Hints:
This protein is an alpha/beta fold and 270 residues long. A six-stranded mixed sheet has the order 6-7-8-3-9-10, sandwiched between helices. Strands 2-1-4-5 form a four-stranded antiparallel sheet, covered by helices on one side. 39% of the residues are buried. Helix 6 (158-172) packs parallel to helix 7. It has one domain: P-loop containing nucleotide triphosphate hydrolases (Rossmann fold, 3-Layer(aba) Sandwich), CATH 3.40.50.300. The radius of gyration is 19 Å and the shape is globular. The protein has helices at residues 49-57, 79-84, 102-106, 117-120, 127-140, 158-172, 188-203, 215-221, 244-252; strands at 9-20, 23-34, 38-43, 64-69, 72-74, 87-90, 176-180, 208-211, 224-229, 232-238.
Amino acid sequence: MTSTNQQPLVMEARGLVKRYGRVVALDHADFEIRAGEILAVVGDNGAGKSSLIQCLAGASHPDEGEIFIGGKKVVLDSPTDARERGIETVFQSLAVSPGLDIASNVFLGRELRRPGFAGSVLRMLDKKRMRAEALDAMSHLGLQTLQDITQPVETLSGGQRQGVAIARAAAFGSKVVILDEPTAALGVKESARVETLIKEISARGIPVILISHNMPQIFEIADRIHIQRLGRRLAIVDTREVKMSDTVSLMVGAVTPAELGLEEHAAARG
């Protein structure tokens, strides 16, 4: 893995606050991800990592705080708004349509129409172009086994379906790709395929946010780890410099960043 410390910030969040009644899910949480890096987000139950990701993906709106993309402040009112700004999210549920073919799933919600009268008036889809571009996206990510782009998604394995969802994210995620537990329900072989896809996306310069409970996987493919605790960013650690056991200890509060000689990123805010 190459160092990303000198790479430009692609996405940043400052002081995010999210409340659900009396429950404070995010307590002035900060976040940052740089170009081409694979950043894992980890935390114990109730740490606020899901709320953080939902805010970054546009699925939830923070009560306070700011989000920046490419140094410019943005307001993400919905997942559609986030997608229009180049942020693609693959949630654990995948959100694929089993009855549609691979190409239709890749362009789900972004269907291409034929040029001229057929597309503008008759609203006919340009299926030939969508199939060609979908095949290119799948091949670019190394999914050589999926040559029949008209194959229904319901006939694919779990790993292949995950590949379709990730290919869709990679094809349209020009800024950031967010993956929520991408290998949680997959076997060893399928998980390895998805991990390769993540590395392919990163190699293209697109940063990947990886939410996972699989610590060996995180230390295998992630560059850095964002540790979330009690609604805030506790620390950011480099997977090449910190032990897995120490990372877990930080997550559960058994040790502090200072005790491990790390910088504590959680701001002392009210």
